[in-house]
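Render this sequence as a predicted structure.
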Amino acid sequence: MTSVVDGVVKLIKAEFGYDLLDALMGFENAEKVTTNLLTHSSTILTGEYPGCVKQAVIYALLMIMTATEIVSKNRIMEYFVNSSTLLESLFWLLSQTETRLEFGYDCLIMLALLVNFEKDRPNACAVRLSLVDDHVTLNGYSQAITTGLSEFCVEHNPLLDNSSGWLHSFSTMVGSIGSIFVADENGKNESLSGTKVGLLMAFYEAVHLNRNFMTTLANTKTDTSPSNSLSQNITSPLQLPPSNLLVTFLEYSSLVMQDIKTESGSNLTKLCFIVLSCIAEDQYANALMSDPHLVFRVQLHRVPMRHRKISPDLAKPAPLVCSLIDLNVEFLMTHLTKRLPHEIYMQSIGIIHRVLCYQKKSRTRVNFDWKQLWTAFFTVLKFLCSNEVSLLKKFDIFSMALQIVNMVNLFVTFGDTFLVTPAAYDELYYEIIRWQQVFDNLWSLSRY
């Protein structure tokens, strides 16, 4: 059936202008045929059939769903979206360990396609996803995303190298980081074929639509199976500890955000920060990340620079909110170029703002080196003032500067509610005085 659909699609695109739905089954028989197709497909997916048979069914359904370049123009998708049997089958596959390891990625791709069909209209799949409260299903959904993102992180982790010698280690580290972003002769970024865009879309839909999904962010991944490629790829003495979705996603984001020069890389980074914004807006997620008794090692990958050395040591265990702020600080400090990605900068600043508002509201004191964040703020302000002529032609630099100044005022006014020690308050005032010239320049610019 996959071959038939593929052949019809190619023929329609090449010579005819027929609608795919009419060409495959005819408008008058569409409802009956699609109902039977989805019923039989669901029976196979949830029944005791060989894995190769289930895989063939999934490939056939994916072929039909992606038959048009724009999903919303595929009329067959209307019947798929309104079918409860297909959605329940996908949830069932995700809830079972064996089927999740084998078909989890494809299931999430299908879910992302279903939820994103004609988003300007009521979508039955989006409503159903928002109402899922079964812990097993949500945990399976989360672990499927974690597995996919972990494979990418392990594949591009410069620390996972068996060879010895400082020269080899340095060369491998630079080569691993650089190989992620090698462009082919057509100018396309080869790495983006393996960056799990479909998983990010499925992740975004889950955190955006379903508040219950936030409870799975810190659940430790426990999938164990011979087919799990993670256990086969890691042969270094630096074995990674059991991970969870948020830890893996933060590490993944630190890799992806190193390449935003291409449009595809920039869009991917935007999607990562949109997901982080959704997480930072949720009160339960903030409580989870700020819990001092819930600490994890998050290996954030950093861009090699001449003025700093990249430490091969694993990160120290810390609350997840520390790693989240550290990730944003790293982004703010390493992308100050004439082609400033202001949209992503505004997203990053917004994430930090949301986290600080929660810290202030809940009076949570996190043991974090806040000087790193203040330095990042002041450095961005200095860059905006120094390049205001060229940057003003592209975006409103004052809106970005205003948001940063508001957060500095938040520290000054309410710092006593979330800074750990009085010494941190003293250091804040010291840094403000030390960067006084930046504020004077910003004030001068705002007057014109």
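Summary. Confidence is low (pLDDT under 50) at residues 14-18, 161-193, 224-241. Residues 135-155 form the longest helix (21 residues).
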